[in-house]
Design goal:
The chain is 57% helix and 5% strand. The protein is built from 5 helices and 4 strands. It has a single domain (28-171), classed as Up-down Bundle (Hypothetical Protein Ta1238, Chain: A). It is mainly alpha-helical and 183 residues long. The strands form 2 sheets. A two-stranded antiparallel ribbon has the order 1-2. It has a two-stranded antiparallel ribbon with strand order 3-4. β1 and β2 (25-27) form a beta hairpin.
Amino acid sequence: MADRLTRITTRGGDTGHSGLADGSRYPKTAPHFAVLGDVDELNCAIGIVVTNLALDHHLRATLIDIQSRLFDLGGAIAMPGTALSLAQDVAVLDAQVAHYSERLGPLANFILPGGSQTGAYMHIARAICRRAERSFWHLMEERPDDYDESLGVFLNRLSDALFVFARSVNTSSPELLWQQKPR
């Protein structure tokens, strides 16, 4: 593979603007960069989960594949007009959610994020994913023709999957149940 990054420090963002892969420049406060930042943060959070899983854990390869899809998504955001669809990946997430949900059984009460350390990290990733999804749909309000809606659907389904994955890694740790404040 050829070197992709020849220079890390470019100084191009020193004025509060940054460039997308297509060469266009926007203020760093533009919705493109909110999505890119949130997706990057999500990928980092999933990376923490991966490092906390055993090398042979059943979710490890799944999460690493998701990290690659998040890179694809970020690449599409950085290159407006890229015809990237994650519809097939949404179907994969749907199947995974169904598979793990069946093994977990019904959820009788709201749960609090936690359980095990890995489960708590998974919940952090889930919350970041929700933010990334909101950022994506905000961008879509401004630039509806630049991106495939399946990118937002992927983030929505991924947050569901991360919730179910958190419950799955917590099967050996008691989940904390929400206790409604007495009236």
